[in-house]
Known about the structure:
By secondary structure, the chain is mainly beta. Helix content is 6%, strand content 35%. The chain has one domain (2-341). The protein has helices spanning 2-9, 231-235, 325-332; strands at 32-36, 42-50, 64-71, 82-87, 90-100, 107-115, 121-122, 125-128, 138-139, 143-144, 147-149, 156-157, 168-169, 174-178, 205-212, 224-229, 252-257, 268-275, 278-281, 287-288, 295-302, 307-313, 322-324, 338-341. Keywords: Cell wall biogenesis/degradation, Glycosidase, Hydrolase, Signal.
Amino acid sequence: MFSALVAASTLLVGANALTPNNIMRRDNALTSLKYTTVGGSGSYNKVTDLVAGEWPSCTVSDYCQTESTTVSGNLAPFDDDITVAFRGPMTISNIAVYQPSNTSASTWSQVSGWTAGSSNSTNLVFMNNDGGGLSGEWSVCGGASQSYANGTWDGSAASPMDSVMDGTLPAGQEVNIVTAQTCNDTSTCDGFTRGTSNHGWSDSKMFVMTVTMPDSSDASQVPAIWALNAQVVWSAQYGCNCRNEGAQGCGELDIAEVLYGSGDDPTAAISEIYSFKGATGSGSSAFARPVDTPTTFAVVFDVQTDSISINELTDWDYTQTAVTRSIVSGYLDASGGETVSFSSNTRRADKRSIFGAHHRRRNH
Ligand SMILES: *[C@@H]1O[C@H](CO)[C@@H](O)[C@H](O)[C@H]1NC(C)=O
Ligand SMILES: *[C@@H]1O[C@H](CO)[C@@H](O)[C@H](O)[C@H]1NC(C)=O
Ligand SMILES: *[C@@H]1O[C@H](CO)[C@@H](O)[C@H](O)[C@H]1NC(C)=O
Ligand SMILES: *[C@@H]1O[C@H](CO)[C@@H](O)[C@H](O)[C@H]1NC(C)=O
């Protein structure tokens, strides 16, 4: 069905959005969420150096050195390199990333892909935060850098994608995806990098991923999917970084996060967005946690319309190598969902305190 729609849409190049036929609808839960007026003019504290320090303890008070960096424009700072992070318990069966060759291109091509249990991936590397073991680095002030995730997603590997990954992310473990392009002198990454640092996906991009979020025997172990400015992981996701969750922050989008705390619903997955503009989110609405049945999230970051959409899909054909702009516009314009303006520093979601301790448990 879906590929037929893609073919039909080529007849409508430049026309209005073609309504995709695979957007999930549920009676009791959010399935489409759109953030508008995402970008802004402002500044975030870019990490410029992370002083390693000397064993046995960090005695350098300003080990996390930053400078205020001004950015502006559509999607800013989410037009920077972006990584997507996952916390278990979760199973991930497929991921694909699509990008246009420029902001207004009529086709978004698959630039990265991975299938659970497959021995290959295309321009996609799973990392985790265990630097200092088999890959990456650790320092007394900086803590762990990124490392290449090993096949069971609970430790590091010496090389990227070194073994088959079956897609089972244990409770409490985290992985994040980046491209296969390393940060180096000829292909520089913005800000400070160390250890094993790879580029994320910049400018417009669509992430499609099929996941389940099963219950854990320990109810306090709750799953989450979130996107970060990749600068956060290039320094230290837990430690010295530009995240800040709000004022002076370089960008975070919680795509589907289950919260654990008094009053939190373990069957709900919320969304929130943070940048130097402030924070807002899905408020009293939430996606349904896909406990037993896999679901597919499509997350579009669109420079042209300065918006981000999260849609839950009934299915996705991961073999399709391109999607038309018209279909992407259809996801951005999905009716029957919720639209949240990020035009001002208003906080809509009071599900937790803005500086809450959600997935920052491993602070160094
Ligand atoms: C954008 O990309 C499309 C397809 O590759 C191309 O035809 C078009 O000329 C490009 N536009 C700009 C402004 O570069
Ligand atoms: C794996 O490799 C095969 C053969 O090269 C290719 O057709 C397929 O698309 C690849 N799969 C992924 C997920 O990259
Ligand atoms: C991954 O690392 C963990 C922690 O060191 C280890 O227990 C596990 O066996 C490793 N998995 C693989 C496939 O190497
Ligand atoms: C630098 O990174 C680019 C992109 O990942 C890669 O193509 C190139 O081979 C790298 N160069 C070196 C010297 O590692």
